[in-house]
Amino acid sequence: MFDLRIFSIRESGHRIHNPLTEAQLAAFGGALDLPTGARLLDLGCGSGELLSTWARDHHVTGLGVDANPDFIAHARARADELGVTDSVRFVEADATGYVADDAVDVAACVGATWIGGGLAGTLDLLRKSLKPGGMLLIGEPYWRAVPTTAEALAGCGVRSVEDYLTLPDLLASLGGLGWDVVEMVCATEESWDRYQAPQWLAMRRWADAHRGHELHDEVRRLLATEPQQYAAYTRTHFGWGLFALIARQPTSAPADGGQGPSGLAGVEAASDRARS
Fold first, then answer.
1. Average pLDDT along the chain
2. What is the pTM of this model?
3. Closest Cα partner for 231 from 155, 131, 168, 151?
């Protein structure tokens, strides 16, 4: 279970809680060409930068849901700063299983696919809030370079290389789950650095100011180990992407009588094709 307090400490100065820059997020929003008044749902919205800046720039409306009270407070303050409080609102709640009361044009989960038990489950969850023909936004890590040693796996904080896919396999898996990938933006080394490195300064300043706090020793431990671990493993092995998806339209029935690959079988089939 995540300790939300650690996230609040280390990402206290972040507006975007993923390895994308403000310029990347803005360019991605522009590329989607969303219509004025489009309704968005953002599960695991963090500090609400996507919703608030897109409401300002593209005149969309939306709801953000996040369990972290500090992030929700930041999101509400950001919406007020940008003058979009009439267009967006933020709810402090567990996004796991959250379904909108009314269907939306765009449903998003940007880097929090644990809310659906993984990628496939999160896509299924988001679909429940989506209008027919609507768009999903999903943020997900992938292997930029697949680890080949137990040391590298441990340094990446994973048990198996099967925990993530390469980018081609990830895109193939989305297709196998019935979605067309219609746009994407991927982290760069610079955007990874801008996400990760400011956390170290935030942790150091917090630790200096809270020497008697119960989390002090854990924050100090993270600060002592993470810079080297990030440079050696995360920066080398991990990619991260934000993908826009639209459900594929039914086509003529396949030879198996209409039961083409779907669900996990579709993922496996698509991944096998990508690896061949």
1. 92
2. 0.89
3. 155
